[in-house]
Amino acid sequence: MSERNVALRVVTDVVTAHRQLEGAGFAVFRPFPTHGLEMLDPFLMLDEKEPKVYAPGEAKGAPDHPHRGFETVSYVLDGETEHRDSLGNRGIIGKGDVQWMTAGDGIVHCEMPSQRIQAEGGRTHGFQLWVNLPAELKRTRPRYQALTASDLPRASGEGWTAVVIAGNVLGASGPAATHTPIVYAHLTIQPGVALPIQIPNDHQVGLYVFAGSATAGGNSRRVDAHQLAVFAPGDGPVMASASTDGAEPMQALLMAGRPLDEPVARHGPFVMNTREELIEALEDYQAGRMGIIAPAGV
Fold this sequence. Notes:
This protein has about 300 residues and is mostly beta strands. The chain has helices spanning about 115-120, 275-285; strands spanning about 10-15, 20, 25-30, 45-55, 60-65, 70-80, 80-85, 90-95, 100, 105-115, 120-130, 145, 155, 160-165, 170, 170-175, 180-190, 195, 205-210, 215, 220-225, 225-230, 240, 250-255, 265, 270.
């Protein structure tokens, strides 16, 4: 089959993340939801936990809190996070690991620095992505996927590597089981290298740069660290190039998914389709119907 000449997807917007405090007081960079971008359907939120070196006893996390109606995806680049939830799941999310948690019908969980990090201190850095669930799966049974760094395949070429968490991209298939079609990958591109990425034409695409800087899309938009490039629909490849004005490689998260195109009603840790469903979620949580986390050691 002859190769078609297809125009590259263009970048329609570049959104700068704002910095805010979350959980017990740790800082995050959040490109969405913001005033510039409410969501990147089917993705509801992206937080980059600010890279920081903590002294012993200083590290902070996210104590017990509920979720319903969507999925949380935690990706740890540095440090260790201890996860516990109301289903009895417990474990350590270490360097390069991913926790893909389907809150579904409702769950209470916490993500805190591991006992080692709390005792010894150390550098922490990572991400949390919220993925929406379609209406018929809002109340699905909660599910927990623990993916270690060794579970995640790596694709590579001249001047670039990709750690693939979900979906099929750049010749690799991520191990995460998703409820809707999603691509999620961590890209590292050396200065001056351009990487074309073929994404299904019915997927919405975002590229969040967190180190270095990039030139993205057929219209060559500059994207600096803590900025998100949003791409237009189309059947052409997504192009990401690492800028040559820095010595460090460009690192970015690639997010792509088929939009749900459904009403979104959100309030704090609950994301449903209607206000009535939000009220029900809050009442269920307050009544203890989402469970509680058993004390450590029980």
